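Follow-up to my post from last week.
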Amino acid sequence: MARIGVFVCHCGENIARTVDCAAVAGSVADHPSVVCSVDYKYMCSDPGQNLVKDAITEHGLDGVVVAACSPHMHLKTFRRAASNAGLNAYLVEMANIREQCAWIHPRTPETTVKATDLVRAMVEKVKQNVPLEPIRIPVTPTALVIGGGIAGIQAALDIAEAGRDVIIVEKEPSLGGHMSQLSETFPTLDCSQCILTPRMVDAYQHPRIKLYTYSEVEKLEGYIGNFEVTIRKKGRSVDIDTCTGCGACMEVCPSKKALDEFDMGLRTRTAVYTPFPQAVPNKPVIDREHCLHYKAEARAIARGKPVKAVCQKCAKACAADAISFDGGDELIKEKVGAVVVATGFQLYSVAKDQPEPYLEGYGEYGYGADPDIVDGLQFERLASASGPTGGKILCPSNGQAPKTIVFIQCTGSRDPAKGIEYCSGVCCMYTAKHAMLYQHSVHGGRAVVFYMDIRATGKGYDAFTRRAAEESGAEYVRGRVSAIYRADGKLVVKGVDTLGGEPMTVQADMVVLATAIRPQPGIKELAQKLSISYDQHGFLNEAHPKLRPVETNTAGIFLAGCSQAPRDIPDSVAMASATAAKVLALFSRSEMEREPQVAKVDQATCSGCFHCERACAYGAVEHLEVKDRRGNVLRVVAQINPGVCQGCGTCAANCPSKSIELDGFTDAQVFASIQALSL
Amino acid sequence: MFEPRIVAFVCNWCTYTGADLAGTSRLPMATNVRIVRLPCTGRIDPLFIVKAFERGADGVIVSGCHPGDCHYSEGNYHARRRFRLFKELMDFTGIDSDRVTFSWVSASQGQKWADVVNGTTERIRALGPFEGYPGSEEVA
Amino acid sequence: MNALRDLARQLLEAGEVKVVIGYEDSRRGVRPAFVSDPADVDRLIFDARCVHNLATYLNPRRGHVKRLGRAAVVVKGCDARAVAGLLREQQIAREDFVLIGVRCGGVFDTPDATGPLDAASIAPRCHGCTVREPSLPEHVVGDLPPEPPVGRDLDAEVARLMAMPAAERLAFWNRELAKCVRCYACRQVCPLCVCERCIVDKTQPRWIEPSAHTRGNLAWHLTRAQHLAGRCSGCSECERACPEGIPIHLLNHFLAGVVRDAFDHVVGDDPDAPAPVGAFRKDDAEEFIV
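User reply:
Got it. Predicted complex:
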């Protein structure tokens, strides 16, 4: 027989003004399962909580109902109080007679009747409550960071500095990401590499950070706190431990035609190469698509002929004997507890051939096919001291300094006709930066910026953009460009000045397109491997746009940087630190504790139809084979992983046989609540 | 005057919080509604509605987060399909589905909740007691 | 018919199956046949009286049939839809049974019918049939008979009910459902009723009154229809099995129309086609939600 204690709060005058609390307590006292029913002025106060605790001891209560404010306010308070008195916290419920009764109704008998009704419903519900313990799941306190750009590095350093191990997986041969390609960063115009390389080195040398460069995530299995990641370490052909970084291999390599990715195709490189002089690790890699030996090997294998060694001059030149043509990719497994996805971005290309069916190129700009029409990252390389022109801004076509550069903002961004409706956030700022860098480099050079709006919302950003116009003398023209074509040695840019109300044609030597930021290629495949969701552009989805911006709906997987949405360096760094905080919170205990409001399958009545699996947004439903003593599989039933289940109960409602119960809101509890209402 | 008896099945994160906000804002409401709190509209089985009518309810409210805002990301999408089917089924059997109000009320929509409560109460009052429900007169 | 018998004999003699589940004649019309001896295959027939949906014997809840061993089941195109449903819900594995499809020209509403197959005698399930040539089975026998006559149109019956005022419609269903004796024949015959423990048999708590009581009768039939929405293969065996002659398949047919119109889905015989159960679209209509 249940022994329920009922405590009706006056909440000062808040409830008592319209609800007759004594009468409520009196009515409910007659309920056969209620052994103690009192009213009191302030239940959440210390003496109020002691009333509950004393009653638990004195009356041997096995359930408590506090009729007061909303459970959102004080359910945790009373659960804690009960727990301190030795009653399981989950045997406590609250009846909301303040926000949902006293405060919305006048002082009439109906209001007190309603309050009594609500209390009785909770008494009947709590009779069906069972003691629950928070779910404890072990946690491997190692983080996997996918992406070694500024966001990934920041998150990794924050986590490592807090004393936890980190594994960084970076697909390029070096850390750094796109920030390493930038010449100077807004709004301070400091040298990008100067602020980045110390961080790259810190990450490389940190005792708690393990770095896999030239590597990608092959597979992720498991669940929060208990992941196993398989990493594909692509074959470098160079042993980075024995390699001394002397560079002799690069000097003798005869294959010199590969387009240099770091310099955005503005120059070529050898097949054995280090991406840039400040690379971390500063060790070369052999590009098998351009290496003479590997190309010959691929041809021989395709024709079924034996493989013969070709060239291999680099290996012969290597004094440390660090080059070997024998190895291939390696698959390595690591155990981690959390994953941070910091894969960064790629730029939208204006070319005719687009990687996605919904994207279009800019035919009106000649599909950007002229060598002097460049994008933002290419301009950064031209402006960069370590770039193909040694930091002098020169036209790629003829090596001359451009007398006029047209900068076009919003190329691709905010253009639904091209498939990208969003704003890329950083282009107004870097275009202003480019205009200023150009005018510092080419004195008297004319910079014309075609813009739609100027979005400069960060600290010091507005002053920065105005400096470009007011101090540097860049001409800001509000309007779009309808065509760019070559004529008489110049790039003719046809635009419009909407504020002046006239069309405007500029004869330019170079055009810089501020192209849209898109997620990395292959992001959808990676997201599917991680079971996280993405939007129509491939940007990864956060758990809640305002309140949970760095988590995903997959427990244990977090986001940082441009993988989630376009953002600049300060915001990427801030987000990465926020992500690190979430990861560290997860790692703060050897076992994570979760509210036990999770679903459970009654495996005896489950028919294995898996409607529940389809209903679950979190992938918490697993298949369990029910076997006989000889190991024969009798049936396959559903099983819910308590570590992953978020407690929504959609599975329970979708289950036709009601074989799933959601602890805290079981069928019995809901049924009892409905039955108890005086209808 | 006939006082309708109405049960509301609401989700914890949006509508229940919205109802709390209506309370904090002291918005006057009819006393006829009893709220049953659930984690998500995804948890709401049509049998809850059936049970409420069997017990003698004259009307039912089902309310949760707006699509796209579900705390559990997709529960309300499942609920939407489920209740579309059930509402049409009710109408097909001749049970007036006007006796059930389906609504999306967010945590910031205290006034909307008050309107749903008051509007439903008046509508059910006009429809009268739910006497046509088979077997409801035999409730213990 | 010979092709069917030859195939059955081959499958049994080769040991590929232990039993062929098909149709045979009897004193009271056609009934399901369970042939385990290759010498008995001549019992197997197929004609317009073969209305039964034999896919129900693949439902894993029929433990007594499972014990007969690996089966070959004779299915019409409509029956194959139910098999696809069982596959989709992982109740059976494709390699565990053989399907013998039969080309069909329509069936009578009862297995003991005599006389011609015409608009009055043809089963309502044949209306608008698009699967006279079944595609799921690995074997298909028989010649394709002529187009069936157009008979009882369930869409028209649904429309007629919906045209009535609600009170009249409620009165219709109250009258019909009052006849229900809760024999659960509808549930037992349905191939897609796969629940190990049906919801009506759940006692803790008891959502649906299981005995023949007006209150529970409505709850039972509403629940049955809701649970079959998007899954029902439209065979209407439930209605044929009902000893009281209640038009319960109209509930399923009605909801199939809602699933088609609102969710753009029709139950077909492709087991890999996704089901609308447990699915949604972000732009599902919500004009009924305030």
